[in-house]
Description:
Number of helices: 9
Distance between the termini: 43 Å
Helix content: 55-70%
Number of domains: 2
Number of strands: 0
Radius of gyration: 20 Å
Strand content: under 5%
Order of helices and strands: HHHHHHHHH
Amino acid sequence: MIGWLLLLFFLGASVGSFLNxxxxxxxxxxxxxxxxxxxxxxQNNLSWYDMVPLLSFLLLRGKSRCxxxxxxxxxxxxxxxxxxxFVWWYxxxxxxxxxxxEPLRTMQAGYWLMIGVVLLVVLVMDLAYGLVPTTPVYAAIxxxxxxxxxxxxxxxxxxxxxxxxHLAAFLxxxxxxxxxxxxxxxxMGMGDVILAPLLGLILGYPRTIVALLLAFWLGAIVGVxxxxxxKRTLKQTLxxxxxxxxxxxxxxxxxxxxxGVVFNF
Length: 265
């Protein structure tokens, strides 16, 4: 069991390393296929043994082999989080994600892993570069629509629940679009507007409400603290997608209970 979990963790970390490369080359406009991984500082090409997920970072003690300068923490962080995601998905999947019986179980497991990967990529890109990649979010929205339709037709999803997922997605998009329009893009980015309906399709009602409340509350607290400690000014924006994703994760696990606590308080 432990060996299998370690293998899954390394597989996830390898996926995280690959996604790191795609993110960097996308932001910098590099070639996905023919591009080479380079040092963040001196731009020398990296050897394969300097790119082993997590292990290379640990053996090099967080410094570049070619120029001895500190390596960006974002790379091992993504590798670790993706490895942890794969392990969590495997451990929790047999209990939490089995909403349907055979033969849809494989599709269901694949769907939730895909959602986790997309949300983790969005979280990292928004934190590191202030960008929400729209292409994977659009793809996840389309796949989510198909997924909900399949388990409506062939699985146990009721029609009223199907409508609740899509209504949550539409109202989330409408709400964030309104905020984007009112603030003229200064208080809410278009990437957040696109991400909102995906969370609605994932969570449905009432968990979407809980996720967004948590996102706004936590975002406000962190924003005030950063201004207080002079890490940011009132004119600077704060990446909001990580708060949305954190709220979605908490709500996915405990959303129904939290909804009852908040609205019966």
